[in-house]
Amino acid sequence: MFCLIVLGASQPWNARAASDYVQARCGRTGGRDVYWCGEGTLKRSSGHRIADIDYLEKATREGPGGKSPGGTFRVDRMVIYRDVSGNGTVLSLPAGRRGMRRLVPPLEYSHHVGIALTESGKPEAVALRPDGVVVARARTLHASVRRRLFSRAFALQLQLERFKGKGALSGVASVAGVGGGKLASTVEEYELHVPLCPGLPAEMRYRRTGPCPSWCGGGLCTTDLWMRQRRRPYFADMMAKCRRDVSAPVAETRRTRDAEEVARADT
User: Fold this and answer.
1) pLDDT tens digits along 181-191
2) Distance of alpha carbon 94 from alpha carbon 75, whole angstroms
3) Residues pairing with 158 in the sheet
4) Measured CA distances, 83 to 43, 79, 109, 245 (Å)
5) Residue among 114, 93, 94 at smallest CA distance from 104
């Protein structure tokens, strides 16, 4: 297989670029779902690593999105926070009773996403819950498309508008588990690489800088993710593994608590 390699300067987004981006994220209308698997880290602004992250996403192309070139798409996401020791265990926090610990629960949610172009030609993103409530809007700080050696690279930097209230999660910033409150300082950066050679998987890097998750206290945190398109069987295996990992520590904690109660009764 031979690929024609063409290098080009960075170009601004237009309707074609927005449509191509949506297609790379979620496939063609009426086609198969697109599956993303990734990993990354959650760090404080000081550089202290709070957790490692496993990330799973199923993206589904939907119908026409009005002013959104390429239409809208739905994302179903699951985020697992793991201990930074590297042993693969799910992150847990002190529960305050006799050395007991509680798991940081996985984050699972669904959003409908649309990317429209403003009058100035800049992309603008909006995310809605399945019930139609808008949970995030974002204005563009930077957007470009560049032809690289082996891929076409879409770069997008967004600043989220301020949303308050229950369920006010940003479209992808909610990877960090932040709900409600002030999100005006939250910035998201995407870099999607679509291979020029057919048959190769697309890759995407994502960075979010904004408020830390509520379960780890206040402050500023950065989420970094690297993800790659995967086939459905691989995605299903990863999803099953993550669910086993999440459920096993819970059962283990319950057994420990039951054993302690039995021991106290024996004494």
Assistant:
1) 444 479 999 99
2) 32
3) 140, 188
4) 12, 13, 22, 12
5) 93
Nearest-angstrom CA–CA distance, 41 and 46 = 14
Q: Model confidence over 1-18: pLDDT tens digits?
A: 445 445 556 777 888 888
Distances (CA, A) of 129 to 23, 58, 106: 21, 15, 18
Tokens 């679509």 correspond to: 194
**Pairwise CA distance, residues 48 & 83, whole Å:** 13
Helix, strand, or coil here: 80? Answer: strand
**Location of structure tokens 């190769």:** 200
The residue type at 97: R
CA 192, CA 21: separation in Å to the nearest integer?
A: 8
> Which range, 8-17, 24-33, 197-206, 254-263, has the best average confidence (pLDDT)?
197-206
Q: H/E element holding 181?
A: none
* pTM across the whole model: 0.81
Spatial CA neighbour of 228 closest among 210, 207, 205: 205
* Spatial distance between the Cα atoms of 61 and 71, rounded to a whole number of angstroms: 8
DSSP conformational letter for 90: B
